[in-house]
């Protein structure tokens, strides 16, 4: 019995062009759905999103429920578009800047 060939994965690192790194603070589900649909139409099947730690956990004792709901909606949008997500906690070292919450 012959093994099925591995499929070649093609994806993209993603920030919405309208909001960039501030996408969770100004979440727009229509933009995410539009972009994921375009990404899938371009033949990609995986999207890497970046979550700034401080957007999800603005203080040491709590998670921002609105930001978490946006992440869940983003996962739903990916499913609807037929793409998979790689979720990355973005803490920095891009261009020498560290994005760690002030409380940390």
Key attributes of the depicted protein:
104 residues, D-tyrosyl-trna(Tyr) Deacylase, Chain: A, three-stranded parallel sheet, alpha/beta
- Give the rounded overall mean pLDDT: 89
Named CATH topology: D-tyrosyl-trna(Tyr) Deacylase, Chain: A
Unreliable spans are none
Structural class: alpha/beta
What this model shows, in words?
With 104 residues, the protein is of the alpha/beta class. It has one domain (11-92): D-tyrosyl-trna(Tyr) Deacylase, Chain: A. It is built from three helices and five strands; from the N terminus they run E-H-E-H-H-E-E-E. Strands 1-2-3 form a three-stranded parallel sheet. A two-stranded antiparallel sheet has the order 4-5. Helix 1 links the parallel strand 1 and strand 2 (46-52). The termini are far apart.
What is the gist of this entry?
With 104 residues, the protein is of the alpha/beta class.
Topology:
Layout: E1 11-14, H1 29-41, E2 46-52, H2 53-56, H3 65-81, E3 84-90, E4 92-94, E5 97-98
Parallel strand pairs: 1-2, 2-3
Antiparallel strand pairs: 4-5
Helix pairs in contact: 1-3
